[in-house]
Amino acid sequence: MSQQQSEELFASYLAKYGIASESQYVVNPRSGSNVDFRITFGAQSVLADVKEVQEIPKREGEIIAGRQIRSDLKKLRRKFETELPACPLILVTVNGSKGFFTGLTVVQSMLGSIEVVFRKSDFKQISPLRHSKKGSATFTRRQNTTISGILVLTQNLRNSYFGNPYARHPFDGTLFPQTTVYYPKSDAVGDEITVYSRIMF
What is the 3-class SS of 44-113, one letter each residue? Predict the structure, then answer.
């Protein structure tokens, strides 16, 4: 699936449910940067940029979804430079490959890789499964607070929204029809994290 096809899929989804939008909305007049859509739900506006997870060139079905999503989040933030959006801003991710990824991939892209700590002397586990403290998170209290979350858009338009717990402008993902909403936490442990591995895209 191409960038254009991903944008068309999202546009058709918005049209199906009568959600008002305008495309190629300029967010940084100095640089001319834009996002793919400005959407309105009554008095609520939200900015959305559409990207897709693509297969690794010449390796059919192989994807590195987490790396691509992290990269897309960083590119989206850079569009604004020193500007701060006055409304929620989301990344819309479409799986444009023959492979699959899970909700856990999305959550790790947001809040960092997961780890378990063992004691060196006897290899006894001394921490629960948790998000790593080693700085691999894209969303923190001080970083990428302008991005409100990630909407994973599927071909059958049954979608999932993952909210950024540190968002400057939190967004109510239930405004998108046919969407299951999740609010992952950076201090989650054990089953609070692994539950996301059951969500397939």
Answer: EEEEEEEEEECCCCCCCCCCCHHHHHHHHHHHHHHCCCCCCCCCCEEEEEEECCCCCCEHHHHHHHHHCC
